[in-house]
Write a structure and sequence with these properties.
The complex is a heterodimer. Chain A is globular, with a radius of gyration of 13 Å. In chain A, a hairpin with a 6-residue loop joins β4 and β5. The termini of chain A are far apart. By secondary structure, chain A is mainly β. In chain A, 0% of the residues lie in helices and 48% in strands. By secondary structure, chain B is mainly beta. Helix content of chain B is 0%, strand content 53%. In chain B, strands 2, 4, 5, 6, 9, 10 and 11 form a seven-stranded mixed beta sheet that branches. In chain B, strands 1-3-8-7 form a four-stranded antiparallel beta sheet, with no helix packed on it. Chain B is globular and about 40 Å long. The relative contact order of chain B is 0.31. The model of chain B has no long low-confidence stretch (mean pLDDT 97). The chains are: A mainly beta, B mainly beta. Chains A and B meet through β8 and β9 of A and β5 and β10 of B.
C-alpha cells in the first residue's frame, strides 16, 4: 500500500510562481502516472495535469507537472498566479493493489 | 458535450440502503470505464469504485468493500451505486466520473449529497 502526501496549504502572491508537491510513501513515483485536479470553492474537481505532465485541452500553459525521482515525488507548478487559481489541488495515482489513490489535498491561497 | 448527472442522494438512517444513479451523455458510454468518488464535508477526495466498460470487472475501495455495489446499464447510459449498511462515515458528496485509460478521471458530474444520520 502507498499514500500520497501533500502540504496542507501553500500561499503566494499574484504574478508569482508556486509549486505543490506530492510525495509517494512507498514504491517508485515512476511506477504509475500522476494526475492533478483543481477544485475551486463550491465546485467540482477538474483535471489540470494528467500522465505526470500533460495538460487537458483548455488548461492554460501556466500549469505544469513534473516528477522528481530523487525525492519520489510529483510536483504541480503554477506560474503567473491569478486570483482564479485559488483552489484545492489534489494529486492522484494508481496502483494495482491500492487501485486509485488521492493525496490529501493542498489549499492554495493567492494573497 | 460530455455530461454526467448524478441523482438519488438524500438523508438516510444508519444501516439502511440507498441507490445512486448517474445519467451520462455526450460520449459512447459503453466504451468507457466509470468510477464513483466521494468527498466528505470539508474533507478530501476518496475513490470508491470502478466498473469496466462492459461491466465485466468491478473494484472497490477498502472502506466500502462488501457494502457497496457498482453497476451499469449500457442500454440506458446509466451508472449506479447500490449502498447497503450505510454508516455515518459514508456521509459525503458522491461524484460519478468518466475514466480515461484506467488511470484517471477525465470528467466529473456535479455530485449528489448522501447524509447518513438518525
Amino acid at each position: 500500500n502507498f499514500m500520497l502526501t501533500q502540504p496542507h496549504s501553500v500561499s503566494e502572491s499574484p504574478g508569482k510562481t508556486v509549486t505543490i508537491s506530492c510525495t509517494r510513501s512507498s514504491g517508485s513515483i515512476a511506477t504509475n502516472y500522476v494526475q492533478w485536479y483543481q477544485q475551486r470553492p463550491g465546485s467540482v474537481p477538474t483535471p489540470v495535469i494528467y500522465e505526470d505532465s500533460q495538460r487537458p485541452s483548455g488548461v492554460p500553459d501556466r500549469f505544469s507537472g513534473s516528477i522528481d525521482y530523487s525525492s519520489n515525488s510529483a510536483s504541480l507548478t503554477i506560474s503567473r498566479l491569478k486570483s482564479e487559481d485559488e483552489a484545492d489541488y489534489y494529486c492522484q495515482s494508481y496502483d494495482s493493489s491500492n487501485l486509485w489513490v488521492f493525496g490529501g489535498g493542498t489549499k492554495l491561497t493567492v494573497l | 458535450q460530455v455530461q454526467l448527472v448524478e441523482s438519488g442522494g438524500r438523508v438516510v438512517q444508519p444501516g439502511r440502503s440507498l441507490r445512486l444513479s448517474c445519467a451520462v451523455s455526450g460520449f459512447i458510454f459503453s466504451n468507457n470505464g466509470m468510477h464513483w468518488i466521494r468527498q466528505a464535508p470539508g474533507k478530501g477526495l476518496e475513490w470508491v469504485a470502478v466498473i469496466w466498460h462492459d461491466g465485466s470487472k468491478e473494484y472497490y475501495g477498502e472502506s466500502v468493500k462488501g457494502r457497496f455495489t457498482i453497476s451499469r446499464d449500457n442500454s440506458k447510459n446509466t451508472l449506479h451505486l447500490q449502498m447497503n449498511s450505510l454508516r455515518a462515515e459514508d456521509t459525503a458528496v458522491y461524484y460519478c466520473a468518466k475514466d480515461r485509460g484506467l488511470l484517471w478521471f477525465e470528467k466529473w458530474g456535479q455530485g449528489t449529497l448522501v447524509t447518513v444520520s438518525s
